[in-house]
């Protein structure tokens, strides 16, 4: 479920459980398809494509496969230009999405006082596409949950968008 900062429901994040690779999509309250996040199965590293409602690739989210400490994530546009990187603690789900010019695009943190995974996402850079911010957070959450094991698998992500 996606809510605004006042708790009003804006839409849903849904996951296809039987597919070739992980697949998520976003819908508004009327069921209108807003975009999707497709995980690639055969890649050297974790990679997800964020597509708009017309199926056009807007960005790719990637995770570096080998890193001595922590994780390294970045987002590229459809031409391969870097759009954003992560800065913060991915394990504790508290991080910023940072533009190449080092400005903050969004702040993400896990709400620890809930039974299911609930993320608060504050979009700071108002001209940045919210679909890309949500897609980034969904892809990271999915991979990091897989990497930590099945204890948190299947948890639903509830997102509160702040600043919109």
Global mean pLDDT: 80
Number of helices: 1
Gyration radius over CA:
15 Å
Strand order of the largest sheet: 1-2-3-4-5-6-7-8-9-10-11-12
Structural class estimated from helices and strands: mainly beta
Order of helices and strands: EEEEEEEEEEEHE
Domain count: the total is: 1
Low-confidence stretches: 149-158
Q: Share of helix among residues?
A: 10-25%
How far apart the termini lie comes to 15 Å
**Major sheet details:** 12 strands, mixed, barrel
Percent in strands: over 45%
Overall, the morphology is: globular
Strand segment count: 12
Q: What descriptors fit this protein?
A:
164 residues; mainly beta; twelve-stranded mixed barrel; 12 strands; 45% strand; globular
Your description of this structure?
- The protein has one helix and twelve strands.
- The protein has a twelve-stranded mixed β-barrel.
- It is mainly β.
- It has one domain (2-162).
- The model is unreliable at 149-158 (pLDDT under 50).
- It has one helix at residues 130-148, and strands at 2-4, 9-16, 23-28, 33-39, 46-52, 57-63, 73-77, 82-89, 94-98, 104-110, 118-123, 158-162.
Short summary:
By secondary structure, the chain is mainly beta. It has 1 helix and 12 strands.
How would you summarize the topology of this molecule?
Layout: E1 2-4, E2 9-16, E3 23-28, E4 33-39, E5 46-52, E6 57-63, E7 73-77, E8 82-89, E9 94-98, E10 104-110, E11 118-123, H1 130-148, E12 158-162
Parallel strand pairs: 1-12, 11-12
Antiparallel strand pairs: 1-2, 2-3, 3-4, 4-5, 5-6, 6-7, 7-8, 8-9, 9-10, 10-11
